Amino acid sequence: MNSNFYTLSLTVDAQGVATVSIDIQDRAVNVLTPELRRDLGAAIERIASDDAIKGALLTSSKTGPFIAGADIKELVLAFDAGMTPRKGIELVAELGAQLRRLETCGKPVACAMNGSALGGGLEVALACHWRVLADDAVVALPEVGLGLLPGGGGTQRLPRLIGVEKAAPILLGGQPVKAADALALGIVNQVVPAGDVVAAARAWLLGAPEAVQPWDVKGYRVPGGAGPMAPHAVKTFTLGTAITSRNTQRNYPAPLAILSCLYEGTQVPIEVGLRIEGKYFGQLLSGPVARNLMRTMFINKNSADKLVRRPAGVDKSKVRKVGVLGAGMMGAGIAYTSALAGIDVVLLDTTQQAAEKGKDYSAQLLQKNIQRGKMPEAKAAAVLERILATTDYGDLRDCDLVVEAVFENRAVKADVTRKAAEVIASSAVFASNTSTLPITSLSEHFPRPRNFIGLHFFSPVDKMPLVEVIVGRDTSDETLARALDYVGQLKKTPIVVNDSPGFFTSRVFSTYIQEGALMLEEGVSPALIENAARQAGFPVGPFAVSDEVTLELQLKVIEQNLQDGQPETPGLSRVLGVLRTLVGEHGRIGKRAGAGYYDYPAPGVEGRKALWAGLAQIWPMKENQPAVEEVKARLLYIQAIETTRCFEEDVISHPADADLGSILGIGFPSWTGGVASFIDTLGLPAFVAECERLASTYGPRFAPSPWLKDKADNGESFHPPLSSIV
Ligand code: NAD
Questions:
Q1: 3-state SS, one letter per residue, for 121-146
Q2: Domain 3-hydroxyacyl-CoA dehydrogenase NAD binding: where (predicted)?
Q3: If you measure from the C-alpha of residue 332 to the centroid of ligand 1, how many angstroms do you get, rounded to a whole number?
């Protein structure tokens, strides 16, 4: 008798082999929705209790992943609805019990994975007695990246199958394991072409195999040992905990929870191990880090990648040929990324040599790809061929879109904008990659300001995933839609902001490096500032990153802004003092010059950078140094309060954009979920109170505005509750 459930079908053939084929009707991919869990439970019950069924195989009717993991939206909504550790345990307990029932039902069960098995998908497979994987698929337990751990038995069955030592990096790294490696590690039993997985699983079932998991056999021992006396224990647990603590600065609870599951869970019977896993899962799911990471880095990033901010009613467009003005660091990167996406590129500079140098950048990156076996030579050659290096504006004639990436200088930008406008089609979009100059003011040099927009890429363009799209006063909806289509072609994540000096990311980021300079000037130890920044989760401290940007450029930008009539913000004159002292009096321009806040070893000389000893002479360290928590707070809150001003001034309108922009563009710690999530997690009243304290201690740059205080008083938050992500 065959059964059709909403999310799967169960058929039984003449030999008594039950085939459970998963196919969630209204979803493009199979994910472990409540409906699938319910149906899977019913199917398992039938397999266990129906005497006509001698063995079973699980597979998927969809192409693509076998099962792509949990339903992340469900988990985020559950958090917003009031998740507690106990409810978290209950959420996974049902699937856990079903999978345990499956592996102990006394009948052999095979898993025929015709596509990748990710997260919960692999956990279902691990509860089967035999696993067959398609040769082009991968397996992975990526939960750690979302602040969680595999709650469907993954932290218990994987180490019991392949040993704790081999399981730990898979669980802690979350990286995909290719089919051949999964076979070599013993995660799967067979690797065959995708079309053959079901036949292979059937053949195994018909061979009257054992229907018991290794860990249910009397006398079973975890491969390689478990507990404190295992030969690998010092490496896996003692060193592992130290390295994990250093890497995460204890801002991310999931990796340590995974190590605890491995340590505690593998010393006890599997049922107890599964309960231990459930306990840690519940703790993580009810904590803000997992919710914030899932919401920003999964749900909102996916929406942004699908161009959620694209205005409706504009036909989908595709850039076939892009013009890039300026073949420097940014232009060369934009040219490479565009060519890689299959777009023809006209790369223009003032001399043929400069243009060719920009094209060479692509040649070098492509060569690296070939050497690493990531790209066949023929493909690399085709990508490079797409780039035309030129000095002739006439070559821009049939470009659909032009990106300007010349020097950050108004006159130079105005000149190239006018020259390009003369040759390109009247329908073409013109984008500026300026990092600070207001887009509306630059569009004055373009005859069709409706077609003018800002596309702010980040350096290095080939690695940085974010593009900040800036809408000028006159930018049309069509231009925005077409610019977003181009960002989509490049497979980058866009956020959309309104025009203002520094837009969103540069404006917020500048407060971070300026706060560093202000603390230095106050006599706070520069080493304390840099270390506190890394402890807070920033990839680099404010001085290291200042040196990268160059102190000279910062000085130029601030001076240009003041010349342009931008009001002087509190503390800015003191920052200017620091920069002028370093650049003007001591010639410390930044990393490129070998001297900034740090001293750098001369080119070709071994050694590490070190904070310049002269800093202490110019700005003597005060006797009473602040607590590291206070320094962390200043670095986090100064960016957060600036973000609230960006909301108030409508520079940014969506909290998801603020979150993504801050994490992907300017290195705001991802454990916070981004700068808007950081504020919401604290709660606006608490955030406002702390800003007031900081303002009274360090100055009005921390002061919350009446608008923000009203928002706090009214019980509002930046992210609307619940319904926002449904
Ligand atoms: P860069 O100095 O490396 O490159 C600028 C290029 O423009 C040079 O190759 C130069 O020869 C060329 N150029 C100058 N005048 C020209 C003209 N009249 N016609 C054609 N080409 C001309 O600078 P970059 O770092 O690539 O920055 C370019 C733009 O991107 C700037 O507006 C900058 O603010 C912005 N930006 C820079 C970064 C960054 O991290 N460097 C990040 C985002 C945005």
A1: HHHHHHCCCEEEEECCCEEECHHHHH
A2: 321-499
A3: 9
